[in-house]
Amino acid sequence: MEAIESLQNTETQEPPDFSTSNSDEPPSACNSQSNVITILPSRHVAHKPSTSNKTKIFRKLFYPDIIDSQWNDWRWQIANRIRTYEELSAIVELTESEKNALISHTQLPMSITPYYASLIDRNNPLDPIRRCVVPTIHELEHHHGESEDPLSEDEDSPVPGLVHRYPDRVLFLATDFCSTYCRYCTRSRIVGRSNCTLPNKNWDTALRYIAEHTQIRDVLISGGDPLTMNESMLEYILNRLKAIPHVEIIRIGTKVPAVLPQRITHSLVSMLRKYHPLWINIHFTHPDEITPETMKACNRLANAGIPLGSQTVLLKGINDNVETLKKLYHLLLQCRVRPYYLYQCDPIVGSQHFRTSVAKGIEMIEGLRGHTTGLAVPHYVIDAPGGGGKVPLLPAYYQGMDGNTIVLKNYEHKYFYYPETT
Ligand code: SF4
């Protein structure tokens, strides 16, 4: 009965008319034809963030005619994403491997915001930011154990655009669009297909499913990147979810503060704060992502009372050493982002060059736990292939029992004993 009532409540609301022009709409996410699109300054361009020297130099070299109000406009950033071999080779010295990958058209398209491209070292193919977003020929290799959908999300999808694996929570895939595509993306089988941020025809079916299943208390909106959608589209989903009585919390998964921090406008934050309790988990990879722009974006979200967490994929040669992760996590805590998950890289097709051993992941936790603030230590997990869900992995702190005593090994590898309660 409760389910039927909540379904009725949510269905009485008309979807907004997305077809009309909206000042918050990414103007050319779907139909950008030219390299540089001029957008008049709008009242939604709320700030001129301070910036790093790296970004300043990059702008001078490659976008000398672009004024601050354009560069700091998230819609300009989306409209002018770098997507082709020609566009990228104009700003980066490409290797043969990168050239061949771009010419061969890998499964996942390339897309990089000009802002994120400004963080790339154009002369260093091993630059961590570059490796995350510029394809190499290794993506075309297929190794043992890799698959298109290693987490079997499609099997756990009761209706299109929804994954229902754990009884009390669902994953709502609101869009397949991201401003910047990560080469190791778990959902590379589905993201980047429509190449635009349009309302999805599956939303209402997914919302109806959530309303009908009263055990669902937690909805994670992800994709693609939900924060690339315009505010009316995102608010439509948030509003419908908020009207379902058994949905206790809403979470958003995004990489926007790292790749498109200009998107975190006052207007967006004012809308989001109406939907508390709302949590945001941000995908961060490397300390080089923590720029003045990103810090400002995180502060703005945190000031709106939104608890922020981070998710990081452990990547070979990019962030698989303790000092890099420690630096990242220390910077995140300064931005009021709590390191939440460190993921073992999922075995999607063409991911072997990104994947470390599991022993390496455990070594990372061993190097962090006890050696820094506990808040800076995330959970290291493997999302079990085949749909097993997240399995946490820890160094062997618990060494077993000695009679009625628990044997513990601490971060300095010293042994301690705790009397077990019988
Ligand atoms: S931002 Fe997330 S969904 Fe988008 S490409 Fe990166 S990992 Fe995939």
CATH superfamily of the largest domain: Aldolase class I
| Rg for CA atoms | 22 Å
* Count of individual domains: 2
Using the coordinates above, name the CATH class of the largest domain.
Answer: Alpha Beta
Terminus-to-terminus distance: 46 Å
Instruction: Give the total of beta strands.
Output: 12
Query: What is the SS-derived class?
Result: alpha/beta
Give the fraction of residues assigned to helices. Answer: 25-40%
CATH architecture type of the largest domain: Alpha-Beta Barrel
Side-by-side strand order of the widest sheet: 1-2-3-4-5-6-7-8-9
Question: Ions, cofactors, ligands: which are bound?
Answer: iron/sulfur cluster
Q: Strand percentage, roughly?
A: 15-25%
The H-and-E topology, N to C, reads as HHHHHHHHEEHEHEHHEHEHEHEEEEE
Which fold name is given in CATH as the topology of the largest domain? TIM Barrel
Report the principal-axis shape.
globular
Largest sheet: 9 strands, mixed
What is the count of DSSP helices, taking H or I runs of 4+ residues? 15
* Unreliable sequence segments: 1-23, 27-38
Round the mean pLDDT to the nearest integer and report it.
90
Give me a quick take on this structure:
This protein has 422 residues and is of the alpha/beta class. It has 15 helices and twelve strands.
Characterise the protein shown here.
- By secondary structure, this protein is of the alpha/beta class.
- The chain folds into two domains: 7-20 and 144-392, TIM Barrel (Alpha-Beta Barrel), CATH 3.20.20; 53-140, no CATH class.
- The chain has helices spanning 2-11, 53-62, 68-71, 74-79, 85-89, 96-104, 114-117, 128-133, 203-212, 231-242, 256-259, 266-272, 292-303, 322-334, 358-368, and strands at residues 162-163, 169-173, 218-222, 249-254, 278-283, 308-314, 337-344, 379-384, 389-392, 398-402, 405-409, 415-419.
- The strands form two sheets. The chain has a nine-stranded mixed sheet. The chain has a three-stranded antiparallel sheet with strand order 10-11-12, with no helix packed on it.
- The protein is globular, with a radius of gyration of 22 Å.
- Mean pLDDT is 90; it is low at 1-23 and 27-38.
- The structure holds iron/sulfur cluster.
- The site of iron/sulfur cluster (SF4) has 11 residues, from loops.
